[in-house]
Each structure stands twice: as structure tokens, then as C-alpha cells.
Design goal:
With 138 residues, this protein is mainly alpha-helical. The protein has seven helices and two strands.
């Protein structure tokens, strides 16, 4: 994938294809923005924001809530939205622990979990949005 493709802005309409592109881009920024030098491990804005006491985790939770709002607009079930809210809440609470709160974010990636819930819904109810990626993963 070319660098220009990685960070191109997704369309802003409400079609399922556009929603899928937006939530995938947002998840990438929040959870997999940069690779830690010397490792193959990626971190995103979510971990970085955890180093800013109170405001950082709250901002990350607000961005996570945007993912849930997009999911709500897709007509997802209340149960799925409740699971997503739980993921956001756990991430927020863990992030509130000063300095140490970034460590659980390495392992509990709420935005990735929520993206999986959204993709499952899109694949089931909007099959035309599915993307087959045959590129090898590192």
C-alpha cells in the first residue's frame, strides 16, 4: 500500500462503504499509527494520549465514542452498541491511571475490538462493503 493510500481521507457520505473506510482509518490512527523502533509492534494515538493525565484518556474515549456513533447510524443492535460502549469505558478507566495507564492500552485495544464488531455487522448486513486484502501481513 502506497503512503498516499494509507492516509487519504475517506468520503464523508453515509453509505456503508464510506462508513467502513472512516472507521478503518480512525482505528488505524488510534491503534496502529507508528511502529516502535526495533520491534514489529505498532502503537497509535490512543497510547500516546494516555500520557496526558485525565484529558488524554477522555479525548481518546470521545474518539472511540465517534466510532460507536457511526455504528449506531448503521443500525447496529443495542447489544453490539453496549459491547462497544463497554470497550470504550474499560479503555477510558485504564487510561485514567497516571502514566501506568498506557501499559494496558498495549494489550486492550478498544478501537480494534469495536472495529471488529462493526465489520461483522457490515459483512452480515452490507456484504458489498467487504474488502478482500490478499497482501501478505508482516
Amino acid at each position: 500500500m502506497a503512503a498516499s493510500d494509507r492516509f487519504s481521507a475517506p468520503p464523508l457520505d453515509s453509505s456503508p462503504q464510506s462508513v467502513r473506510a472512516r472507521v478503518e482509518t480512525l482505528e488505524r490512527v488510534m491503534e496502529r499509527l507508528v511502529t516502535i523502533p526495533g520491534t514489529n509492534y505498532k502503537v497509535g494515538l490512543d497510547v500516546i494520549l494516555d500520557f496526558v493525565p485525565i484529558a488524554g484518556p477522555t479525548a481518546a474515549a470521545a474518539i472511540g465514542a465517534y466510532l460507536a456513533w457511526e455504528a449506531r447510524n448503521l443500525g447496529m443492535s443495542k447489544m453490539a452498541l453496549t459491547r462497544m460502549a463497554g470497550n470504550i469505558g474499560v479503555d477510558w478507566l485504564l487510561g485514567l491511571i497516571p502514566w501506568v495507564g498506557a501499559v494496558p492500552d498495549f494489550f486492550f485495544r478498544s478501537n480494534t475490538r469495536n472495529l471488529k464488531i462493526i465489520k461483522r455487522h457490515l459483512d452480515r448486513h452490507h456484504a458489498g462493503t467487504a474488502i478482500v486484502d490478499a497482501s501478505p501481513r508482516p
